[in-house]
DNA sequence: CCTGTCACG
DNA sequence: GACGTACGTGACAGGG
């Protein structure tokens, strides 16, 4: 039966990666019904293989066939040029686990499946095609990759599997303007932005083809470059000769690989019905299983239909029963769990630690869950009970696995790209594990799934999610740790008590994941979750763990200075008041001012206390000295307590740096929030406060670099609302507030006064916040009628703004949510409220798409940043809503600025094409005050 | 634990 | 016609 490959043979080569990506992008993110395993790409891939098999009857039928895959990310091309494919976007996380399944699918169809570590599929395809051609056979390459067009001709053609379009010599001529043998030359000149092949700047395919046709070959062209008439082109070709030559090597396919198999191994084989159907039914592809079994004339295997019930009902099906969870105490027991995880391809993980601060807390135990109701807890560092039962012992409790041994066993699983690790707030667990030498990936996060779907509806903590979506109240941690002064840490909890609590968390997480995963697509937030939530986790974890250096002495000195000034002010205030009182007590201050000193106009709030806010005291300052002194005192008190004192407590003893924690799902609009400490509200507006930033420093030899988006929210407003005058002003780089003032008041730009500009600025901000006459009047301290007049005139000059506001509110009323340009949904359940609530909800709805789009943009920049700056001695340290702060070797500061700026300014691409440019301003210096 | 105040974007 | 309002956060201190 077997025939030697030669004349009359027809080899089909399928570009496996191309098939997979086509399948992935062409189909919605399907999941396997029984367990939610992402399966869309595998499904598409199988359909394409099936179609391939069905189509191949008749004269064009292949005698030989193979699916060729890429393997390994580092190839000889990376050695030639380290930036090769450097700006490739990372593989989507829900595609990664599907890759091994497509290999299995190929084998199930009984089609040869070939790959070689460190080689791209293209080179294997090229080698096979050349071998087949040399043997006198025909070749069809099933791919649309233009790199493969070099191979066309002499019995080799291509077939674009999606468009079903055959590409022959003429097709190549059409695409490249040259024959297949010169395609490499054209590519070398034109470069390829997708693969990051540099080529010759300013020369595209058209020009390249023109040049090659004129000079015959790339080599002749480069040798005779001096003859070229166009000066720019001539210069490029002479100066970039080396870069062009490297480009040619990058695009040139390798036809002479030594392969560990021969063409004869690729002979077409009929699939084994049993193997193929077993695989298809395991994947739960009902239609395809039926179709193929009909075709093969065998009975289709039964695929159990999972019961379609509400999540609540499913939860009842397998009750959450903490007493049934297993306690894993040795390597043999753990190995059983690892086997289960590898079988499944995913696992819910939860870590227990001695505290909530990821940089200080120690690992105490781990829980795992692979199927609802089956979870385990692995205690690792619980302490033995003390002899007197009052003070715990420092010795480890009996019956625990050795921590190192456990981590060594779990590390390969936790780092296995084919095993998905599911967590609730995975950044926490990832940081704890990272400090123990494990880099968890890939991950899914139920908290972030909920955030993507439900922002604005409720918070996304596990207790809330469990109650809402599983109708189950988890064991409160208080039951184990107690509260207040008597609170203990988790390592002091008895192991048998810990098992139920800890394993339950993993069980709940898995159940939430199963409930949420299919919902992401239904609610149209898959892209938001996949592109703007999940990829941010490792980026933030990295930033937080790296921290920023804070100089304790600087803070301490400032603190002392503040103390002295405050003491002096306090004396003065008591003197003015006529008696001693607590200046820090708004209640006492109100009584002093309005009762004892008899100042008029005190207003009591709903609690019955006088208001003493800064705005009120500022008004009173014109009448009396005391309020002005109190304002000064308050400013110092704030700076001292919140910054110079508290910040010192946050300096980590081991690193000497401050490690903030960002909440990804904290703010409804998509913004991050910073806690412990909050590094997004370090003072800057007053000179005295600004000096606190001098304590944030770079290591010796380094500098801090700050890049912040200029007017990003106004730019977004100009784009969304379509305000031509504003767009124009931004495109021309004008001072936007002055331009607004000029448009509104008819004052020419060169006659603009600071006062008029200030008013326009207040209006611009007001618009972003959902302007009201009252709010603007208060901000500008002008009569309300005047403020309303400004607003009316503003809407008159920029009618698009009013239209945007009305449309947004109408959309919110209809859908109970608004959306950012990138599809992030922010729910607005209060939008229909009556009474004073109504105004709040409207303004929030107007503001959310603007603030949220800005948040999306900087998220995208942050996600791309690590790869972009990977080659530089630089680290991203902080995010402050529209600013990114870096630490970089002083010598590389300028390069970092240009790279990071490009990432930030291009962060909306390619999903959203903004009508206005994004601009990032940069600064650098030894400390944050100088850098900003 | 809640409220007022104030730091940031 | 009156009401009460700028949007989004977090930390600290005072006071029940």
TrEMBL record:
GO terms for biological process: DNA-templated DNA replication; double-strand break repair. Keywords: DNA damage, DNA repair, DNA replication, DNA-binding, DNA-directed DNA polymerase, Exonuclease, Hydrolase, Nuclease, Nucleotidyltransferase, Transferase. It catalyses: DNA(n) + a 2'-deoxyribonucleoside 5'-triphosphate = DNA(n+1) + diphosphate. Residues 689-892 form the DNA-directed DNA polymerase family A palm domain. GO terms for molecular function: 3'-5' exonuclease activity; 5'-3' exonuclease activity; DNA binding; DNA-directed DNA polymerase activity. PROSITE patterns: DNA_POLYMERASE_A. It comes from the Bacteria. Its EC number is 2.7.7.7. It is an enzyme of class 2 (transferase). Pfam families: 5_3_exonuc, 5_3_exonuc_N, DNA_pol_A, DNA_pol_A_exo1. InterPro entries: 3'-5'_exonuclease_dom, 5-3_exonucl_a-hlix_arch_N, 5-3_exonuclease, 5-3_exonuclease_C_sf, DNA-dir_DNA_pol_A_CS, DNA-dir_DNA_pol_A_palm_dom, DNA/RNA_pol_sf, DNA_polI_H3TH. Residues 6-269 form the 5'-3' exonuclease domain. Residues 325-521 form the 3'-5' exonuclease domain. Single-chain monomer with multiple functions. NCBIfam families: pola, PRK05755.1. Belongs to the DNA polymerase type-A family. In addition to polymerase activity, this DNA polymerase exhibits 3'-5' and 5'-3' exonuclease activity. This is DNA polymerase I. It comes from Marinovum algicola. The lineage of its organism: Bacteria, Pseudomonadati, Pseudomonadota, Alphaproteobacteria, Rhodobacterales.
